[in-house]
Amino acid sequence: xxxxxxxxxxxxxxxxxxLVAAYAVITLIPLIWIIATGFKSPVDSxxxxxxxxxxxxxxxxxxxxxxRTRATPDMLEAAGPPQTWYDEIARERGTVISGPSRYxxxxxxxxxxxxxxxxxxxxxxxxxxxxxxxFRVPLKDDLLFFILSTRMxxxxxxxxxIFLMFRNxxxxxxxxxxxxxxxxxxxSLSVWxxxxxxxxxxxxxxxxxxxxxxxxxxxxxxVVLPQAATGIASTAIFCLIFAWNEYAFAVLxxxxxxxxxxxxxxxxxxxxxxxxxxxxxxxxxxxxxxMVFTVLLRKHLLRGITFGAVRK
Amino acid sequence: xxxxxxxxxxKEFGKFTAVQSSTFTIEDGEFFxxxxxxxxxxxxxxxxxxxxxxxxxxxxxxxxxEVGQKPASQRDIAFVFQMFALYPHMNVGKxxxxxxxxxxxxxxxxxxxxxxxxxxxxxxxxxxxxxxGLSGGDRQRVALGRAIVRDPKAFFxxxxxxxxxxxxxxxxxEELRALHDRMNATTVYVTHDQLEAIxxxxxxxxxxxGVVEQFGVPQDIYDWPATKFVAQFIGSPPMNFLDFxxxxxxxxxxxxxxxxxFNVPEVREGTRGALTFGIxxxxxxxxxxxxxxxxxxxxxxxxxxxxVTLDTANGAIKARxxxxxxxxxxxxxxxxxxxxxxxxxxxxxxxxxxSAANAEVLADx
Lengths: 312, 365
What we know:
Chain A is mainly alpha-helical. Chain A has helices at residues 10-38, 42-45, 59-65, 73-79, 85-92, 103-134, 140-149, 159-169, 175-200, 203-211, 216-245, 248-253, 261-264, 276-296, 298-305; strands at 66-70, 95-100, 269-270, 273-274. Chain A has a domain at 104-267: MetI-like (MetI-like fold, Orthogonal Bundle). Chain A is globular, with a radius of gyration of 25 Å. The model of chain A is unreliable at 308-312 (pLDDT under 50). Chain B has a six-stranded mixed β-sheet, with helices on both faces. In chain B, strands 15-19-16-17-18 form a five-stranded antiparallel β-sheet, with no helix packed on it. Chain B has a four-stranded antiparallel β-sheet with strand order 2-1-4-5, covered by helices on one side.
């Protein structure tokens, strides 16, 4: 076999494979831990040394989605036999289900605020990036730097002014307020990323469309957007992940109406203090949408991470 | 199809002037070349004609209508880009049909039209293929298809062969010219390749630094360049320049190069000072008996001809000779210039002096 610069040898392939596998295991351990804890009983969840093999139970999930009250044996007797499987799980712990928990609402809030701010960010970001990429904007470089500079401090540094502003504007604890806030934080990243992607699309495509009898907007919409799809998708993932995971502002600015899942999950209190399986169950379910979104767009994400590295 | 008239067209980008007051006319059905080195303003001129740039001042008439400030979509012209600019997210057929869809043509008619065009260009079999995997030539054909499908008033092409391999270029340039002749469409073609311009063009505009240097049919431009720039830019090797100081009176038929006097076409406007004597390499003959002497410093064999470089009292000079002539480096020989082909230039301004031979050509430009 002759030596080749581009084809890795078998040894190299094995080495790379082992390295990647090891890395995957290291990153997956916390994830596996949290998923497993969700299916443990409260005792197993705090056992030391940790139990690896355990009898799975849905108790954590039942506790996550329900509010329960402690009941005396007499009361349990009086309530009659359990009606459903989750009733049964609650009874075993000497409790009765008094109603659904607020996790569902919080989760829905996360979805509305996360996807809402991502969508808004993409619309504004694409428009701004296109303008910066294609038109002679006065003070373009200064404006671009200004946009970037909003990213230079940790967003939480301005938490107090934002809190006061939101209070005066009546945006505290509203969906709109959180969507606007996350959009503002993410916009700099999305403008810069998208500008990079749009810069890579040759002007000639739009010019061809202009010549072919389309208006500027049609050229943008029908020719530029389809080609920027990759960039838009990967930028959307970055924005969504930020908005989805954001904790500090959510704690500060939301309490009831618009509270997202991240501040809610750690505060799930069980009957006997912290209910770790329920917390883990909440975290597991919380992971799903971003995971699905990322897997769906993973092709684009890879390209987004390496963008600029390879010229077409 | 249409006549295109450019009047005093000017374009500035901030402080930089890309095109300075160009004026020329492209007749209906002409294959018109905009020729010049890169950065000379030829592409900017074309883009202004197409509506992709707005002129700073001046007028552009297409078919008698002033369109200088109109958007590209309303000019009814087609543009072939250097990198083809085929829409990458559409297949070949959709690319070609795209200009028709913007006009709201019914689907069935679009399909028929695209079919006809594909037939003309010989690309029927690739209509359903994505444009990504096509060869350079096929991309070129698709780009042409997209241009001709709409029957526009004029075709604008910006170095359309620039992205092709050398061997394929020749073939494609023939195909292009044939297509033009068949459609009899006004075509404006930008190139920096003087050979391509001379081969394909009915008329040529030579530009440099945003200025139109000369405008005319290829042979006139080749034989009677209006400026030293044109003389040097066109022809390979370019026209020879022999610099000398002197005075030429109006009506003179001889010039003095050192101690040797040469017959030249009758000069119409005399001048004095730094002058340049211009002669094309193919009009230089080696003649041992001639008074003007040179020493051979290099020979370059080109198959049927050879290029011989000689050192003279007024600078180096190249002669295109038959390969059968035997010339050796170091030979001392006499040089004879065909007197009917000589152009004299004012070396300071670079302008050709009007003479009996080139007066008619220079009057056009």
